[in-house]
Amino acid sequence: MNPPYLFRICSETIEDSAIWHDRLSYIPPNAGGVIIFEGRVRNISHNKPVNYLIYEAYEELAKSEGEKIIEEAKKLNSIETALCLHRTGCLRVGELALWLQVTARHRQAAFSAAEYIIEQLKKRVPIWKNEFYMDKTSDWIQ
Amino acid sequence: MKIYITYYASLREQAGKSAESIEVDQAELTPSILYCKLKQKYSFTLTENHIRAAVNDQFIDLTSYLLQENDRVAFIPPVAGG
Fold this sequence. Notes:
The structure holds two protein chains of two kinds. In chain A, 28% of the residues lie in helices and 41% in strands. The N and C termini of chain A lie far apart (37 Å). In chain A, strand 8 and strand 9 (138-140) form a beta hairpin. Chain A is an alpha+beta fold. In chain A, the strands form two sheets. In chain A, strands 3, 4, 6, 8 and 9 form a five-stranded antiparallel β-sheet that branches. A four-stranded mixed β-sheet of chain A has the order 1-5-7-2. In chain A, helix 2 packs antiparallel against helix 3. By secondary structure, chain B is of the alpha+beta class. Helices cover 23% and strands 28% of the residues of chain B. In chain B, strand 3 (52-55) and strand 4 (58-60) form a beta hairpin. The longest helix of chain B has 12 residues, at 31-42. The chains are: A alpha+beta, B alpha+beta.
């Protein structure tokens, strides 16, 4: 069994990863609250229809910074486990870009930790998004 | 000394490469000074205020870290995960 606090980059579909398949086994029996957050590719961004997007990561640093954030969330909230997977590569509209599962004895800690992890991830983890629009233009989101 | 540089996202596109190694002979070279040189060379549009840097897979301070032989430097444009 992997450690219950981890952050991983997935170059393939998140739903094909071993961690996602085993996700129920990471819910300990004392967890009365489980928060699952899914970030998916939206069809409209910056008022333009999205065709697809490409996520790029600095994988070693993304993993260490992501796990640092999870450790911080654990210190701030009484949680039992936190797993976060982030996709890289080409994603179509509707595809899963980010998957987060946080468990805690009580729901408030799980909600709060999940919010913290997502907010900090968006600010700190070296992952970049290049959006490609239906009008053939593209933008690095900054 | 030899420095290895990795570029990501918009910096990679503007540099036209994802990595390179360079020889520098400047003493007390910080990532900040190095970025200014590369910004001129590749016409990077991001100013130093908008980037961070990592050396050997750890975030470091742009203006106080002194680069050493064989350091692996990455300049980090604004991130957009999630």
